[in-house]
Structure formats: structure tokens, C-alpha cells
Design a protein that fits this description.
There is one protein chain. The chain is mainly alpha-helical and about 300 residues long. The protein has one domain. Helices cover about 50% and strands about 10% of the residues. The strands form 3 sheets. A two-stranded parallel sheet has the order 1-4. A two-stranded antiparallel sheet has the order 2-3. A two-stranded antiparallel sheet has the order 5-6. Helix 1 crosses helix 2 and helix 7 packs antiparallel against helix 8.
Length: about 300
């Protein structure tokens, strides 16, 4: 019998209360968003208090301005993440049920949409406040990995976005009929790759440590755009790799496309997460090249 890890006894909700027949609950996923934003705010404030890290030994903005930036980014992430999920993953469904686009409490957020929303919010804020956009992007990039780590751990707790069936000893038996629907002839429990934890490790921990090393040991903030470029490319590569083991989104799977490839290249193909990550990698490499061509300040 193959080795498998049973899913831990963790509920998606920390607690719930009823008020006048209405149930209010605090979920781990919501807490991950809140904690991620607060950690990002604290990191950017610390960066703005360290002028020696920046070009000309001058921080791009005052620490007190970070609170305003946070407001813009929160709006950008939520709107972008929701619209990204609607447009990239289930456009036909939401075209038929447009009112459900607003039902964010039912779940459905896309990282790439939230990423675009955050980039647009940061750019607009930089223009309005007269802040160097590339340096602001570097600060936002360094502050993002902790939130990604927490978000992926919350995905694991929610038992969602799991991977393909596996016989590896670290495979996890996720609850629910969809997760336990393994191929015919499968012996033993239907264990799957815990791809949420793979992504937490690569996108959150590894990428975060690389960016921190660049900032503290290589003075990367003195080359505006370098940290942001490494984040773009690093996240894209991490997502490109992990999607190999991640179960495809059900709406893209069909009898003639069992792997759920959105872009098919003969026997191979790309899933939606991989397809959306390719522009991030290319943009990141371009920004890195541009930043390295400029002399460090």
C-alpha cells in the first residue's frame, strides 16, 4: 500500500457567530489577506526609514505616506484579483450570471489579476504623489512574498487548488469527492501533490529570501527596477514549474483535453496559470536588463 498523509483536522473558519439569524465567520483565507497586507505595510515603512538603501541615500517617500499607498493597493488587489478570475478562468459563467461577479465572499480570486491591479494602483499612486515609480515598485515587490506564503497556506487549509494524484510519500489525501476522484485502477487512497505548499515555499519563502538578499547584500534598491524585475521573473518561473504538478481547473478539462491545457502544443501544453506567467517572466527579464544597464546610484 502506498504511503499517504491524511489531511489535517483544520477547519477553514477560525470562528463564526450568529447575529439575528445572520452567520458571520472569519476564515483563514481572509486572515491571510489581512496579515499579508499588514506585513507588507510594515516592511515598506521599514524600507522608507532606511535612506542608505536607496539611490542618493534618499528614500522615495516618507514613512507616513505608506498608509495611503496601502489603501490604493488593497483596492487594486481585490478588484484586479476578482476581475482576473472572472475574465481568465470563468468568463462564460459570469457573463450568464453578472451579479455574481460582486460575490467575492463566495471565493474566486486570481493572482495574475491581483498582480495587475496592484501594479496599476502603485503606478497611479506614484504619479499622484510624485514618487519614483520604479523605486516604489521595488519596495512593493520586496513586501509581497510574505502575503503570498500566507495565501498559499490558506489555500491548503481550505483544501483547494490541490495537485495531481501521486504515489510519493508526501502526497496528501484531501477531503471531498472531487479531490478523491483518482484515475481508474488507482490503488489505495487518492493522495495528491500538495501544490499549495510547493507554491508557498517557492513564491513566498525562496523568492522572499532571494529579494531580501539582493536588497541587504547587493544594494539592489540602488538600481531602480531590479528588485521588481526579479520578483516578476521569479514568481513567473515558480508558477510555471509548480503548475506541472497542479490539477488543471475543471472548466478547462474535457475528454479530448484531460490535462486541461489552454494552449496545446502537440502532446504538450500550458495551463492557464503557466500561460499567464510567461508575460511576467518576459517583463521581469526586460526590467532586470534595463536596471543593470544603468549605473548604480
Amino acid at each position: 500500500m502506498q504511503a499517504a498523509i491524511p489531511f489535517p483536522d483544520i477547519t477553514p473558519e477560525l470562528f463564526s457567530i450568529e447575529i439575528g439569524g445572520l452567520t458571520l465567520a472569519l476564515r483563514w483565507y481572509a486572515l491571510a489577506y489581512i496579515a499579508g497586507f499588514l506585513i507588507a505595510w510594515a516592511i515598506v515603512v521599514v524600507l522608507m526609514k532606511r535612506p542608505r538603501l536607496w539611490p542618493g541615500r534618499a528614500a522615495p517617500m516618507a514613512p507616513g505616506q505608506v498608509e495611503g499607498l496601502l489603501t490604493w493597493v488593497i483596492i487594486g488587489v481585490i478588484l484586479g484579483g476578482r476581475l482576473g478570475f472572472v475574465l481568465f478562468y470563468q468568463p462564460a459563467y459570469y457573463l450568464a450570471h453578472p451579479l455574481e461577479i460582486l460575490a467575492v465572499w463566495q471565493g474566486g480570486m486570481a493572482f495574475h489579476g491581483g498582480f495587475l491591479g496592484a501594479v496599476l494602483a502603485g503606478w497611479l499612486y506614484a504619479r499622484r504623489q510624485g514618487v519614483p515609480a520604479l523605486s516604489l515598485g521595488d519596495a512593493m515587490a520586496l513586501a509581497t512574498p510574505p502575503g503570498l506564503f500566507l495565501g498559499r497556506v490558506a489555500n491548503f487549509i481550505n483544501a483547494e487548488l490541490w495537485g495531481r494524484p501521486t504515489t510519493m510519500p508526501w502526497g496528501v489525501v484531501f477531503p471531498g469527492p472531487a479531490a478523491q476522484a483518482c484515475p481508474l485502477g488507482w490503488e489505495g487512497p487518492c493522495a495528491r501533490h500538495p501544490t499549495q505548499l510547493y507554491e508557498a515555499g517557492l513564491e513566498g519563502l525562496v523568492l522572499g529570501l532571494v529579494l531580501l538578499w539582493l536588497v541587504l547584500r547587493r544594494d539592489a534598491l540602488r538600481r531602480p527596477g531590479l528588485v521588481a524585475g526579479v520578483f516578476f521573473a521569479g514568481y513567473g518561473v515558480a508558477r510555471l514549474v509548480v503548475e506541472v504538478w497542479r490539477e488543471a481547473d475543471a472548466q478547462f478539462v474535457s475528454p479530448d483535453n484531460p490535462m486541461g491545457h489552454v494552449l496545446r502544443l502537440g502532446e504538450f501544453g500550458l495551463q492557464m496559470g503557466q500561460l499567464l506567467s510567461l508575460p511576467m517572466i518576459l517583463a521581469g527579464l526586460a526590467v532586470i536588463a534595463w536596471a543593470l544597464r544603468r549605473p548604480p546610484a
